[in-house]
Amino acid sequence: MLDTLASLGEFLGGMAVIGGVIFAVIQVRHYRQQRRDAAAIELMHAVLGPQFGEAFRLLGFVSDGISASEVRAKGAEYEEAALTMFIMYETIGLLVFRGVAQFHLVHELTGGTVVAMWRKLRVYFEGIREERSHERIAEWFQWLAERFEEHEARAPTQPAQKRFADWEPRT
To answer: What is the rounded distance in angstroms from the CA atom of residue 6 to the CA atom of residue 92?
Structure first.
């Protein structure tokens, strides 16, 4: 009888440990999803901010490959706009690399803009790197734009309005 109770106790103890491990795994997954959701919300706030909007308005009309001297000649507001893009996409690039922000979500939200802005500002940042002898300036901005370009080359996507034309909200 005692052997049976001891065996039952060992079994129940083992089940409790297994249950605890399963619970911990579920909690860790839940926490990671919450962290991703929070990162997505912060990303959305940053993209919707007035500084980004103003920077996009100014830089949207400059030609691809604008140099540092050409940006400076346009005035301080253009250089500030370039720095706004730099700070925004430098941060987002690192967050994507570290897995805090999901690649596909960031690509859906800002992919075309990142690539377009890098095409416009690549020569500008290369000039800044050379002037300051600092190759790491805008490194994550460049990395992110290059990853998005590679992704599009491998698996081109249609614009959302075409890709999800049949979408309906969940009820």
So the answer is: 56
Q: Please name the residue that has the structure tokens 């706030």.
A: 45
Average pLDDT over residues 79-92: 94
Rounded-to-integer distance, Cα 46 and Cα 35, Å: 16
Distance of CA 140 to the CA centre of its chain: 10
In the block, residue with structure tokens 């949207």: 60
Could you tell me if residue 92 is left (phi over 0), alpha (psi between -120 and 50 degrees) or otherwise beta?
alpha
Tokens representing 133?
């002898």
Residue count of the chain, please give it.
171
Q: What percent of the chain has pLDDT over 90?
A: 53
Look up the pTM and report it: 0.75
- Average pLDDT score over residue span 127-150: 96
CA 105, 44, 63, 119: dihedral to nearest 10 degrees? Answer: -30
